[in-house]
Amino acid sequence: MNDFNAPAPHSAAPVIDMQHVIEDLQIDEEGYFELVAVFLDEVPTIREAIARALERGREPLMRVSHELGTTLGVVGAARGQRLARELERALRAGEPVDLPMAAASMLRELEVVVQILSSGPATAVT
Q1: What is the Cα–Cα distance from 29 to 52, expressed in whole angstroms?
Q2: What is the pTM of this model?
Q3: DSSP state, 9?
Q4: Does any domain span residue 50?
Q5: Which backbone phi and psi does 15 adopt, to 5 degrees?
Q6: What is the mean pLDDT for each group of 10 consecutive residues in the chain (126 residues)?
């Protein structure tokens, strides 16, 4: 059984690694928060894409998980990025995956990221 067939564990891993993004992209905090604003504007579209992909099956969910992993990585959401990448890997490998549970896990993690990033600069730094 893989992680997508069970409830998401409570992890002590940092949810947002702002400093990594700043160093990796060679931007300042203002630039980082500009990225965050774009990300937050795109969240409704991301939610819809996950829902549509779930309706259509494994292949579309695999593509969405790839895109979500990239998007979450851009804002420094390392745990969410790992979750999306692991789902993509499992789907590519043909492993049995409970698709509704996988989509729910991605949506839960997305909501955690949104909540933290919406709270402002003080809570985003880890």
Answers
A1: 34
A2: 0.82
A3: P
A4: yes
A5: -85, -40
A6: 47 76 95 96 98 97 97 95 97 97 96 92 50
